[in-house]
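Subject: for your reference before the review

Hello V.,

The reviewers asked for a structural picture of the protein, and I figured it would be easier to keep everything in one thread rather than splitting it across files. Below is the amino acid sequence we used in the manuscript, unchanged from the supplementary table.
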Amino acid sequence: MIHVTKILVATTLSISLILLFCRAGEARLGESFQSFKVKAAKGFKFKSESKKDTRTYYMFSMALDPTTTQAAPGFAGGMTVTVVGGRVTGQSMVMRLGDNYEAGKALATAHALDFAYESLGKPGPKTKDSTEREFQAYTQAIDMVMAGSPQNLRYPGFNGVITLSLAPDQGVIIAATPDAAPPPGGPEPVNKANK
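And here is what came back from the structure prediction:
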């Protein structure tokens, strides 16, 4: 049983790292919605839109390939993009981990990393070691969220807050919102343990 679990976790981690380097179509804060729609077509299916005052909310579901659904049965995700004046002003993603918790968590971690980096316009890690460190840090953040402790993340020099929290159905919600005004020298992480 342990051998099968190790193989599944290794396979899932490989899938997750591939997802990290292949942008699935998350939006960048401040980006035009039109350019986002082109990127979104790769990894998301449009579901609906709604309006409230000057904001338009676009809802999408995550498109998953057969390899992903086999590695993490029941894993699913959806994204809402908030647009004002044709520009992305915020976004959130909810992910259900599915029947295989470890595989679902690995996929959620990869999507959370991709989401955070793309939302803030932050370049991804350049080396295998830095990728593994970031993956491990986000895995720990998701563990903390699943234990009921929401996480707020900021990166120095990037205007925006990444919030991870628990969804009502025990999934993970990740949201990106702009900072009002970053302090001189860039914003500091809210929870330095998750830096």
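For the response letter, the relevant points are probably these. The helical segments are 2-21, 33-40, 66-71, 101-120, 128-146. The first strand starts at residue 44 and ends at 52.

Happy to draft the paragraph if you're swamped.

O.
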